[in-house]
Amino acid sequence: MGSWSRRMGAPRLLPLLLWLALLLATPVRADSIRLVALDWASAETAQALGVTPVGMAQLADYHIWSGDMPMPATVVDVGLRMEPNLELIHALRPDLIVISPMQQGAMPLLQRIAPVQVLAFNSPEQPDSYQQARRATRQLAQWLGREAQGEALLVASTQALQQLRQRVQGDGQAVRSIYLLRFADRRHGWVLGANSLFGGGLAAVGIPLAWQQATNLWGFASVPLTALMAEPEALVVYIAPLPFADMSALQGNQLWQSLPAVRSGRVLGLPPVWLGNGLPSLIYFSRLLADHWPQRAGDESRPRSLPYVSVR
Question: Looking at residues 223-230, what average pLDDT do you find?
């Protein structure tokens, strides 16, 4: 066995070899995987699957844009999504690093720290981001050894959308198309299209989006507020956070006040939820929209709370 084994002595070496063999033969538990997720969709999906990341990028921004989506205080912010702190990631001793295709430029450096997997929640090859998110969820669940939880998350997303449809179509009337909007400033916004995560989810249950023109890879377009006049009968749903103190800032805004939906009182506001994340964001959005949908006389079905889904 060589000079090293002679110095150790066979009686002393045997327990060490047995311990190493046992360590190598023991599978890593999914909930013990030390995961760093540089993409928010991967981070929140892993959390919903029962694997809390040890690190994720731009955690403080995630809390601002995602509202009440849970991410434990134990999760470490590892810096910018496109320029993560490599020293900090190394110190976290990850077993796996998950990135989006846009972050592949950092892949050679990240691979020096731990195995890296690329996961696409948005893909030009799949224009329906909802279906792409379902595929990505299954892939991440496989990597984490949480296949059963992955299937449960798919079921939960379907159920949340079906419950939203029941809420929206409860009176049997035709469903209005919806403008989903996040304000960029007092004159412009980002409007979601059919190829967005939320647009694909709503379309799957027969709720149409009003915006039918071109969007980017993530399914939204930057437009002036006057673009919302194209479908005068549509409902406008805006999503916080706002780039101004509150909606009273638009009381004197003629662009906003001239919109047919605003004049007719067909405007709903939702708390923060990120537009381009995974199925957990879609589930939360579906529950928020159902909870804020206009209440009809005698309808007592509005939920009192909006628990975040977890399939641990």
Answer: 96
Contacts of 30 (CB under 8 A, 6+ apart): 50, 51, 144, 145, 146
Tell which wins on pLDDT, 156 or 275: 156
Question: Would you call the peptide bond into 94 cis, given omega within 30 degrees of 0 as the criterion?
Answer: no
Contact 92, 54 (CB under 8 A): yes
The DSSP letter of residue 139 is H
- CA-to-CA dists, residue 196 to 83, 202, 276, 292, angstroms: 26, 10, 7, 21
* Mean pLDDT for the stretch of residues 13-39: 55
What's the CA gap between 157 and 281, in Å, rounded?
9
For residue 48, give the nearest of 122, 120, 152 by alpha carbon. Answer: 152
Q: Which segment of 80-84, 203-207, 253-257, 307-311 scores lowest on mean pLDDT?
A: 307-311
CA distance 149 to 104: 27
SS3 72: coil
Nearest Cα residue to 200 out of 291, 285, 292: 285
